[in-house]
Amino acid sequence: MYLSQTDSWYLERLIWLVAGIFTLSSAILSVLHSPYWLILTGLVGINLIIFALTGFCLMANILYKLGAKPRLNRVSQN
């Protein structure tokens, strides 16, 4: 079984937290207020697919600019 490290709030862990909060919030709002909130759930899913295919994540860029540090840093090869 794979368990992620939980010793700090690193960038990759924060991305999953934000995606979960957005998805759960939009599902609850769709039940309590309007089904149009499910559009937010779809946008979160599309963003996760784009990240998996391209490596680009808008939320990661925003969190990085706010000071979140990635767990692993890319080592440049010369």
Which characteristics define this entry?
YgaP-like_TM; membrane; transmembrane helix; mainly alpha; transmembrane; Inner membrane protein YgaP-like transmembrane domain-containing protein
How would you summarize what this structure contains?
This protein is mainly alpha-helical. The chain is built from three helices and no strands.
Task: Describe the 3D structure.
It is elongated and about 45 Å long. The chain has one domain. It is built from 3 helices and no strands. α1 packs across α3. The chain has 78 residues and is mostly helical. The mean pLDDT is 89. Helices cover 60% and strands 0% of the residues. Pfam families: YgaP-like_TM. InterPro entries: YgaP-like_TM. Keywords: Membrane, Transmembrane, Transmembrane helix.
Distance between the termini: 36 Å
Number of strands: 0
Q: Which overall shape is indicated by the principal axes computed on the Cα atoms?
A: elongated
Main sheet: strands, sense, barrel: none
How confident overall, as mean pLDDT? 89
**Beta fraction:** under 5%
